[in-house]
């Protein structure tokens, strides 16, 4: 039986109830990455979406955004830029603080990672509260980049991240979404 590509990828995502804490269901992309067919379908969904857009770079967020972002950059014949957790980059950096449900965090990128006017795709595995992606977008904008879209494999709309990102004017794309009631 044929399944559409989005359902195929969504069905490969593992739900882990009670992790990292009771009441939370973790959406694990590891099974998608482990299976060559589902990984290819996932990558192809993004390649087909962006192959005709004029992009200069793919920017991936630490750490799972590196997996998809680097493959996508390769497939689109673009450069790849990492946005890292604080203290992981060896050269001159710019930093952006953001708030998490349980505290604060900081992301950084090299000060020379993008040039003013470059069109970039920002990518991560998941949009929850949107804090990390919003901080990364702010870093890119401080360097003069044009963030064409914020993209993710999974959106958790009940946590409000995609709504917060869209409220800033940033276009958002996700392959699939899960609510907390989804098994």
TrEMBL record:
Pathway: Purine metabolism; AMP biosynthesis via salvage pathway; AMP from adenine: step 1/1. GO terms for biological process: adenine salvage; AMP salvage; purine ribonucleoside salvage. GO terms for molecular function: adenine binding; adenine phosphoribosyltransferase activity; AMP binding. GO terms for cellular component: cytoplasm. Signal peptide: none annotated. Its main location: cytoplasm. Catalyzes a salvage reaction resulting in the formation of AMP, that is energically less costly than de novo synthesis. Homodimer. This is Adenine phosphoribosyltransferase. It comes from Pusillimonas noertemannii. The lineage of its organism: Bacteria, Pseudomonadati, Pseudomonadota, Betaproteobacteria, Burkholderiales. The gene is apt.
